[in-house]
Amino acid sequence: xxxxxxxxxxxxxxxxxxxxxxxxxxxxxxxxxxxxxxxxxxxxxxxxxxxxxxxxxxxxxxxxxxxxxxxxxxxxxxxxxxxxxxxxxxxxxxxxxxxxxxxxxxxxxxxxxxxxxxxxxxxxxxxxxxxxxxxxxxxxxxxxxxxxxxxxxxxxxxxxxxxxxxxxxxxxxxxxxxxxxxxxxxxxxxxxxxxxxxxxxxxxxxxxxxxxxxxxxxxxxxxxxxxxxxxxxxxxxxxxxxxxxxxxxxxxxxxxxxxxxxxxxxxxxxxxxxxxxxxxxxxxxxxxxxxxxxxxxxxxxxxxxxxxxxxxxxxxxxxxxxxxxxxxxxxxxxxxxxxxxxxxxxxxxxxxxxxxxxxxxxxxxxxxxxxxxxxxxxxxxxxxxxxxxxxxxxxxxxxxxxxxxxxxxxxxxxxxxxxxxxxxxxxxxxxxxxxxxxxxxxxxxxxxxxxxxxxxxxxxxxxxxxxxxxxxxxxxxxxxxxxxxxxxxxxxxxxxxxxxxxxxxxx
Length: 507
Ligand code: DUC
Ligand code: ZN
Ligand code: ZN
Prior knowledge:
alpha/beta; TIM Barrel; ten-stranded mixed beta sheet; nine-stranded parallel beta sheet; about 30% helix; disordered N terminus; binds dihydropyrimidine-2,4(1H,3H)-dione; binds zinc ion
């Protein structure tokens, strides 16, 4: 990186006699659906110009032979959050956002998690204070709603949505988090009214409990039985039920962390019917398998998340769903639990699959894994990679056009990728506090070597360049799924007219 001595504007130095603050030169820039070979200029926090031979800058970055892409947006990650089982994740807002930045992500949307008995305004204040002090990249929040009482639904949640927390995650499973179907309908009706997006963890709680109880009674307590208890049918059944509720009220939902092939099929079918159903998947469902939970001793606990990774056929179905648009986003579901008594192994070697904290780390490797195995191996083109890792997240979660794309006027959130670089994944080289990675020892190609957020160079030369607390909170607009879902069928529109407008007076 060199300082540029000149101050005279070049042929494309638009709108000002002043030099740009930063110009990234000679890159392959993926800008709003096109690949531009040239320069990208930053002034202040925003992209000021994209084109050939831009004028002088205070600072230059030579990107010859490099891809210049939007910084990633991770719209599903758990940071400094207490789980339903009462376990605190290993990462705080500093380590998590540092780790995200080193992996090419410039915006995260973690959860402000309400537990039963919590007042939502207290929860939001608490998360806002902790993130403001520590985050190094930009962030918003979703609400996790576990206490849908009258105060929350009538007052606190609408206020949060209007203030910019425009998405809500609800659980259909976990005894301490789950909403029943009646409560879920209440939340969906409210979301419809307030134009919020409801993200749904869809697994059938009773199927899982019933299976788990019997497995434990018979002495089947090893990590691999987690994948047996969380049968793909538990995921498919709950997804089908969630889709029916969404269709009943004609309100958009997003099924998070889709794992199973049958679930992908159900979602695709619902979308063909005109249902407003969106979905997400994660690296663990492309790159891990249920058989990983069957590693010797307790090792399998490192691969335990819910829903669990499945088989090769499901991995293929997830790839297909990401490629054909059935699945709109690719997020990490980073849920960082250490391989010790504070996380995965509360009872040491006597820990059963029911006691293990559920979740795998993924903030840092989410993009590098997909760049290597999706883009460089020819499964997807660079525009699909950008949409799945950034652009679709920005649109869906009310951050576009400011985030998620390289365009004049957008925030200068940029990752400069070296597609030649090979990396053998080692937990010791990552920046989270988990201490292991389920991808240990794999070789991947391509790495984001320079990462920029709002014009600030966050990572370069293998080092963090910004201060703790320099990330900024992002209030978000209403979610938009324009272009991410098929046009509505007549049947869906008719249903909306009759049931909702005439009988219930819901507009
Ligand atoms: N499952 C969840 O529902 N949340 C965090 C991680 C996980 O595995
Ligand atoms: Zn979940
Ligand atoms: Zn999650």
